[in-house]
Amino acid sequence: MNQTAINYGKVLFLLGVDRQIVAEAADIWEESEPLREAMESPVVGAGEKHRLIERIFPKEIQAFLKVVCDNREVDLLPDMFQAYGKWYDESEKIRRGILYYVEKPAEEQLTRIEKKLCSQLKCNEVKLALEPLPELIGGFVIRIGDLEIDRSLRGSINCMKEKLVTGTPKV
């Protein structure tokens, strides 16, 4: 993600556009290849692009999209939407991460994990994407930013190996 996309994402956030509207616009953009081709085409005029924006996108985001279009930066829209999400999460103290697992955790177990992480990270909400990773053998690994919590059988085995080889645990 380049600085231009980050700046646009911040502007979109500062404009106060609702997260649902941004998500809807991102979905529209992602789902329509003909739309992306028309908006990125130098052959299609600015007026035509503006009319497309007015017909397809929610009213609350149209002015922003027209400016992006006029500046010929529509190819950066996915990164702009992503940057908006990061600004939003930061303002709401939401942390996102990934939980790698062998056996998918039950919903109540996942809720307990997220609540404990909220307390540990001093944030309002933790949202974990779930991703299977069979090579963990058992247990799970959580990654949120620089934080990694390894409660996997593979991690325990590696730690024991390290203790046996060096006489001290790997930190």
UniProtKB/TrEMBL annotation:
NCBIfam families: ATP_synt_delta
Role this protein plays: F(1)F(0) ATP synthase produces ATP from ADP in the presence of a proton or sodium gradient. F-type ATPases consist of two structural domains, F(1) containing the extramembraneous catalytic core and F(0) containing the membrane proton channel, linked together by a central stalk and a peripheral stalk. During catalysis, ATP synthesis in the catalytic domain of F(1) is coupled via a rotary mechanism of the central stalk subunits to proton translocation. This protein is part of the stalk that links CF(0) to CF(1). It either transmits conformational changes from CF(0) to CF(1) or is implicated in proton conduction.
Protein localization: Cell membrane; Membrane
Gene: atpH
Any single Pfam family the record assigns to this protein: OSCP
InterPro entries referenced in this protein's UniProt entry, alphabetically: ATP_synth_OSCP/delta_N_sf, ATPase_OSCP/dsu
Membrane topology reported for the UniProt record: Peripheral membrane protein
Top-level lineage group: Bacteria
The entry's keywords: ATP synthesis, Cell membrane, CF(1), Hydrogen ion transport, Ion transport, Membrane, Transport
Family stated for the protein in its record: Belongs to the ATPase delta chain family.
Ribonucleoprotein keyword on record: no
Protein name, UniProt field: ATP synthase subunit delta
Cited HAMAP family: ATP_synth_delta_bact
Keyword Cytoplasm on entry: no
Main location: membrane
